[in-house]
């Protein structure tokens, strides 16, 4: 069918780097590309380069299971994730690029009284803050997701579920491509195969640019949005950050006819699943339990995850798996992100999104652009700075992260 489509140009330009930019963003994932787009669109700053060591979207943006939701516990989190969810709702129109946002509902299974109490606490907090989230009985959960086994004799019986109906999924690489095209159209330079190897500063300590495998590139301001390599890059500016990098894996099945209408997550048994528009089951696991920069991950983790999927949905026991991969997630001790200024003048950090930053892509990018343009955090991200690790006022979202760490 594609033979009829001739003369399609590249979606974004691939220019040679300029010697000097107003802003250099390190990392061509959704967060970095999105920040460049919003810098141009909302702040009129177009002398911007996004430097990506591989190909855009080749990091966690193109490796994640695309679950989108805003059902977090604390106001600092609800602010940014709900800001993001609202941007998702209109993102395809904004970018004129179909990111296939599908609000099919995210259902989180409760297996014991502890889960139930925790989910109800989240539901109450969300509803008081104007965010949709509701409690379902096991029968209501099964009506929403017919393949679910709710037998009391099941290996992991469920006693209810929390449902966010506005949650859902999107097409991950379309998010990178859509932001790249829209940013490039506004004059942003997207430079792939350009690895940052050093951050240079002047005698006052202020950033002056970056060393790369394509030479020195000058910059008045630098934004780091490099997910699993955030601490590696911050080290180049002599700053230690409270982040650990761990592999997180996912896998997909052979394609099947549409059978799975929503997203289901179970934190207690460590599995989450949805069905892509191609028909594949998209399945994810908890993180590997040790730090690593490997994008492979341990086989025992996904074996355990598939055990759980087969127990929750016995009808899937004979489905074959097709592909497995890993990404490197940057995890903070409170499972909340870091966005803010750093001790180095002109250097801004967006990191620590760990296992849950895909859903945050538009919101985080939008607020990171504000931070870089204005030099101070947006009201909606004001609680997410590095400062909390000094004061001890942590934002513990371990339960809402919903992925075993
Ligand atoms: P990335 O897309 O990783 O972009 C960072 C980029 O920086 C990379 O492309 C990398 O190559 C580049 N880079 C690194 N070092 C350098 C350097 N020195 N020079 C130049 N470039 C460099 N989140 C959800 O909300 N929902 C989910 O369902 C979900 N599932 C996940 C499943 C898996 C298996 C994984 C791995 C993650 C999942 N996440 C999920 C988390 C989510 O993917 C990430 O938090 C989010 O995509 C991070 O986006 P990013 O743009 O910051 O990072
Ligand atoms: O944050 O919702 C999430 C998530 C699901 C799978 C991995 N992360």
Describe it for me?
The protein is of the alpha/beta class and 405 residues long. The protein has helices spanning 30-43, 75-89, 91-95, 113-128, 138-144, 172-185, 230-236, 299-312, 361-374, 388-391, 398-401; strands at residues 20-26, 48-51, 106-110, 134-136, 160-164, 189-191, 196-201, 207-212, 215-224, 244-255, 263-266, 271-275, 280-287, 321-331, 338-341, 347-351. The strands form 2 sheets. Strands 1, 2, 6, 7, 8, 9, 15 and 16 form an 8-stranded mixed beta sheet that branches. Strands 4-5-3-11-12-13-10-14 form an 8-stranded mixed beta sheet. α1 packs across α9 (361-374) and α2 packs across α9. The longest helix has 16 residues, at 113-128. The termini are far apart. The structure holds flavin-adenine dinucleotide (FAD) and pyrrole-2-carboxylate. The site of flavin-adenine dinucleotide has 39 residues, from α1, β10 and β14.
Structure summarized in a few sentences:
The protein has about 400 residues and is α/β, with parallel strands linked by helices.
């Amino acid at each position: 069918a594609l033979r009829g489509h001739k003369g399609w140009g590249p979606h974004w330009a691939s220019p040679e780097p300029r010697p000097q930019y107003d802003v250099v963003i390190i990392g061509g994932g959704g967060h970095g590309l999105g920040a460049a787009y919003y810098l141009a669109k909302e702040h009129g700053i177009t002398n911007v380069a996004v430097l990506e060591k591989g190909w855009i979207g080749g990091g966690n943006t193109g490796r994640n299971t695309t679950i989108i939701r805003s059902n977090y516990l604390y106001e600092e989190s609800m602010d940014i994730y709900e800001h993001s969810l609202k941007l998702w709702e209109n993102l395809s129109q904004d970018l004129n690029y179909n990111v296939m946002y599908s609000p099919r509902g995210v259902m989180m299974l409760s297996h014991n009284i502890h889960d139930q109490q925790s989910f109800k606490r989240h539901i109450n907090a969300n509803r008081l803050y104007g965010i949709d989230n509701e409690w379902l009985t096991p029968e209501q959960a099964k009506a929403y997701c017919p393949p679910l086994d709710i037998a009391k004799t099941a290996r992991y019986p469920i006693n209810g579920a929390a449902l966010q109906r506005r949650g859902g999924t999107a097409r991950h690489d379309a998010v990178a491509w859509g932001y790249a095209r829209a940013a490039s159209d506004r004059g942003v330079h997207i430079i792939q195969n350009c690895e940052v190897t050093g951050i240079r500063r002047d005698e006052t300590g202020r950033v002056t640019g970056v060393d790369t495998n394509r030479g020195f590139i000058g910059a008045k301001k630098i934004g780091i949005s490099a997910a699993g390599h955030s601490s590696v890059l911050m080290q180049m500016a002599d700053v230690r950050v409270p982040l650990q990098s761990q592999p997180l894996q996912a896998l997909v099945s052979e394609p099947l006819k549409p059978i799975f209408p929503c997203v289901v997550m179970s934190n207690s048994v460590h599995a989450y699943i949805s069905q892509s528009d191609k028909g594949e089951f998209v399945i994810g696991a908890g993180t590997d339990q040790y730090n690593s920069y490997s994008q492979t991950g341990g086989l025992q983790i996904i074996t355990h995850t598939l055990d759980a999927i087969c127990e929750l949905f016995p009808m899937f026991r004979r489905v074959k798996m097709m592909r497995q991969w890993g990404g490197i997630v940057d995890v903070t001790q409170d499972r909340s992100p870091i966005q803010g200024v750093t001790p180095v003048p002109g250097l801004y950090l967006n990191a620590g999104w760990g296992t849950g930053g895909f859903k945050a892509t538009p919101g985080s990018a939008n607020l990171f652009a504000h931070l870089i343009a204005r030099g101070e955090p947006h009201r909606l991200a004001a609680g997410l700075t590095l400062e909390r690790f000094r004061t001890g006022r942590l934002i513990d979202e371990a339960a809402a992260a919903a992925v075993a760490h």
